[in-house]
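For practice. Supply one:
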Amino acid sequence: MWREHDLALKAQELEQRLAAVSKKEEETSALLQQAKEREARDIFQQLEEHFTCSLCYDIMASPFSLNAAGQCGHTFCAMCILKWSFSRLHRLCGCWHESVDCPICRSLVVMTPEKPPRLDFTFPFVPNRTASAICDSWVEKLACALSETKKGRGHKKSRVRVDTPSDLPHWREGGAARKEWLRKRRHVNLEGKTLMSSLYSNWSRLTPENFAAMKDDLGV
């Protein structure tokens, strides 16, 4: 009888230990969850604060900076800044009669000579490879961090609340915001990047008629 009593006590003690271990696992899981949520939130905030295009208000895709006389260095999506610049072109003559300014700080972009040949330093755009690499890397890190914030089965919701932007979940793998950014990078701004490359390659010999045709192609 005493043996049965001892076994019952040991079984009860074992159950208590298992419950304590289970609780500890849940607490650890909740802490990891909070850490991933904070990581995702911080990445998203950095992208929004430093790598949002001021023309389309999305995370930049195929970023290009302006070759501004004041060296403002502001950066935009390739297609966005192309459209901004060519919207200032006079369609009838195919020329910029005044300098184009930066959409953010209004610094003047290097003036485009009306007639060829043009020197390379007058090309108004500079590819920002650093910004491009950061955007690509952080968007991937954001998706990875968000994929690890899903609650596991049986895990209790953390009591500690982490404030999360409402559109942040849409940047996870398969999310609407991520899909749209990838589409824009692969198609819309790939086209812009291709146009930039063609524009730079032919910059010295493009005529006003060529510029007017590009303006029509861009639809601005």
